[in-house]
Amino acid sequence: MHSSISAEEATRAGVHSQVLSRLIVAGVLERVARGQYRLADRPIGEHHALVLAARAAPRGVICLLSALNFHGIGTQLPAEVWIALERGVRVPSTLRLPARFVHFSGAAFHEGIETHLIDGGHIRVYTVAKTLADMFKFRNKIGLDVAIEALRDAWQHGSFTMAALDRAARACRVERVMRPYIETVIA
Asked: pLDDT for 53-94, tens place per residue?
C-alpha cells in the first residue's frame, strides 16, 4: 500500500471526501498539503516533498538543486523544490510547499528525464548529466562554485558518462561554457 494519496485519487477509487475527513479526525490520515494525505503511522521519506511537488505539477520535472540532492551529488540542501516546466505551461496554483520554477523549451526540457517510484508516487527527475548541464546554464542564479562542485563530485563518483554529458550540454547550449571546467575536473 502507498503511504500517501491525493484527494483526486481517493475520489477515483470511490472514497468520498467525508470519509477522508473522518480518517483525519481518527488519526489514520494526516493532511500534508492541500488535497494530499498520508498515513499517519508511516514515516515521511527523505524525498516526500518531491512526491508532493510531482503530484501538484505532473508535467514538471525535478531539476537543478533538487535533482542534485535526489542523486546525492554535492553538499547543497535546497530550501525549496526546483521544478522545470516546459515553456507555456502554467505554474500550478495547488502547490503548497516552497518551490522554484524554471521554464525550458524544446530539447532543453525533454532531454534526460527519468521516472522514479518514491513513497508510492512517480516523480520525473533529470539525469545527473542533464542536471550538471542545467547547473551551468543557470550558473548566475545557482552560483558557478556550486556548479563546479557538483561536476567534480559527480565525476569522482562516476555518476555520468561523457557522452551523456555532451548530449545534455548540447541540448542546453552550454558546451563552450562547460568545456574548460570539464577539462580541469577530468585532468
From this structure: 888 888 999 999 999 999 999 988 898 999 999 999 998 877
Sequence-ordered list of residues with C-beta below 8 angstroms from that of 58, at least 6 positions apart, any chain:
none
Beta carbons within 8 Å of 65's beta carbon, 6+ residues apart: 76, 78, 82, 142, 146
The whole-number pLDDT of residue 38 equals 67
Q: What's the number of CA atoms in the CB half-sphere (13 Å) around residue 29? A: 22
Q: How many alpha carbons fall within 13 Å on the CB side of residue 91?
A: 11
Contact 104, 87 (CB under 8 A): yes
What single-letter amino acid sits at 29?
L
Q: Phi first, then psi: what are they for 126, rounded to 5°?
A: -75, 150
pTM over 0.85: no
Q: Give every CB contact of residue 100 below 8 A, 6+ residues apart in sequence.
A: 80, 81, 82, 83
CB atoms within 10 A of CB 136: 22
Which parts of 36-119 fold into alpha helices (H)?
48-56, 64-71, 107-110
Distance CA 30, CA 20 (A): 10
Strand order of the sheet with strand 4-6? Answer: 4-6, 36-39, 29-33
